[in-house]
Amino acid sequence: MPLKTVASIDIQRLEILDADGSVDKSLMPNVSDALLLEMYRLMFQIRAFDERAILLQRSGRLGTYPMITGQEATQCVPPLALRPTDWVVPTYRGGGVYFARGMQMRYGLLYWAGDDRGTRFPEGNHDMIFSIPVGTHLTQVAGLAWGQKLKGRGGAALTYCGDGTSSKGDLHEALTFAGQFKLPAIYIIENNGWAISVPRKRQAASRTLAQKAWGYGVRGLQVDGNDALAVYAATLEAVDRARKGGGPTLIECETYRMSHHTTADDATRYRDDEEVALWRKRDPISRFKKFLTKRKLWDDKKEKVLTAKTRSWIDAEVKAYEEFPAPNPLNMFSDNYAAAPWNLIEQRAELEEVLKFKGGAEVLMELPPSEGRFP
Ligand SMILES: Cc1ncc(C[n+]2csc(CCOP(=O)(O)OP(=O)(O)O)c2C)c(N)n1
Ligand SMILES: [Mg+2]
Predict the structure, then answer these.
(1) 257 catalytically annotated
(2) Annotated catalytic residue, options 153, 270, 280, 295
(3) Angstrom distance (rounded) from CA 27 to CA 224
(4) pTM score
(5) 367/10 Cα distance (integer angstroms)
(6) pLDDT, tens only, 59-114
(7) Which atom of ligand 1 approaches the CA of 190 most closely?
(8) Which residues line ligand 1 (CB under 6 A)?
(9) Of 132, 163, 165, which is best to mutate to test ligand 1, by the most ligand atoms within 8 angstroms of its C-beta?
(10) Any catalytic annotation for residue 172?
(11) What are phi and psi of 186, to 5 degrees?
């Protein structure tokens, strides 16, 4: 049947840095040397932090922890294209996003220890804590972006979801709303190849995840998510567009989860070593290091200094985390309801009596203030 084409789409992919650290000069964004070095520092430090957090969990000093390793470029770079007054909402795997936004990792550790003080942010902060329910934050971010639009000061809102999460209705609803209202929102799909044990190829029939954007009148593109320069250029363009009233962007970052889903998972049970080895060659940090070395911005001496600095920074964060006084058990009743239901009021009163009976008066301490979260 000779039908008319009423619309067609091109799915484009951005790659700037190759595996040897050479760049495509025609696509190279205008980035200062200081910013390039900051990208490297953030990626390097969060990987070392990830390794320590796993050790803490394995030795019973931390709760279940989701690994970041392999996804440092996708996580640490987009926040560098933002202002502190733009909203950012990471997923549970977003430790690198949290770090790049200037948060102190001692609070991140508190969070993964199940301590509610890890969820507190200073007044006026424009970050939200890791979203553990997959996808529920996506519509909330459309709301945050709508708020930014109504304020009219050129603010934006950025968030992430995984390849698995992109199959949920939440993304459909969020993009429908963001597209229709031309909201200053940036949605990054962090396609790390797996949703726990479900591989990307079994996740969705679409060739790319970026193309989902077209269904909603949203700009979409695919990016090599292990290429810090491409991630930066794509985010910066999306943020500029958002600030100027050009509407939302969906960026699919193709990356890879080098480790297990969380410390409660064993990825060797469902994926091949060869696949992991292939992605190791595309490592975002070693690639970026080659690039910096070629540009004479990096050498072994600088790496040694950063390694030592990172070790003492992590030691200090872990020490501060472990020296926090025990949390007040009554906190489990806080911040859930504007007006608590009768059964929770009763349960709280009961726990208060038990704590008093056990002589736990000093446990009922005031919460330490959450100011000073920014270094
Ligand atoms: C609403 C909800 N349903 C189910 C889960 C359990 N769950 C945790 S992670 C996950 C898979 C998510 O995969 P993906 O979106 O690819 O993100 P990744 O973990 O790879 O970063 C699921 C189903 C959850 N956390 N929240
Ligand atoms: Mg995934």
Answers:
(1) yes
(2) 270
(3) 13
(4) 0.94
(5) 53
(6) 999 999 999 999 999 999 999 999 999 999 999 999 999 999 999 999 999 999 99
(7) 21
(8) 93, 132-134, 162-165, 190, 192, 194-196, 257, 261
(9) 165
(10) no
(11) -125, 120
Sign of CA dihedral 252, 74, 230, 233: positive
3-state SS, residue 16: coil
The torsion angles phi and psi of 199, rounded to 5 degrees, stand at: -75, 160
- Lookup: tokens for 25: 């000069």
* 270-305: pLDDT as tens digits: 999 999 999 999 999 999 999 999 999 999 999 999
The pLDDT confidence band at residue 190, using thresholds 50, 70 and 90, is very high
Give me the residue label for tokens 């736990």.
360
Q: Whose CA is nearest to atom 17 of ligand 1?
A: 162
Interval between CA 138 and ligand 1 midpoint (Å): 13
What does the pLDDT look like over 21-46, one tens digit per residue?
999 999 999 999 999 999 999 999 99
pLDDT in tens, 297-348: 999 999 999 999 999 999 999 999 999 988 777 777 777 777 788 888 898 8
DSSP symbols for 145-198: HHHHHHHTS---EEEEEETTGGGSHHHHHHHHHHHHTT--EEEEEEE-SEETTE
Among the listed residues 101, 257, 282, 287, the single catalytic one is 257
Residue 362 pLDDT greater than 70, yes or no:
no
Instruction: Choose the residue to mutate in 74, 92, 132, 134 for probing ligand 1, maximizing ligand atoms within 8 Å of C-beta.
Output: 134
Is residue 107 within 8 A of residue 367, CB to CB? The reply is no
Q: Which residues contact 175 (CB under 8 A, 6 or more apart)?
A: 187, 212, 213, 215, 216, 218, 248, 250
Query: Are residues 102 and 292 in contact, defined by beta-carbon separation less than 8 angstroms?
Result: no
pLDDT value at residue 341: 84
Query: What are the tokens at 89?
Result: 């909402």
Provide the residue type at 141 as one letter. V
The one-character DSSP state at 214 is: G
Question: Ligand 2 centre from 186 Cα, in Å?
Answer: 18
**DSSP per position, 312-374:** HHHHHHHHHHHTSPPPPGGGGGTTS-SS--HHHHHHHHHHHHHHHHTT-GGGSPPPPP-----
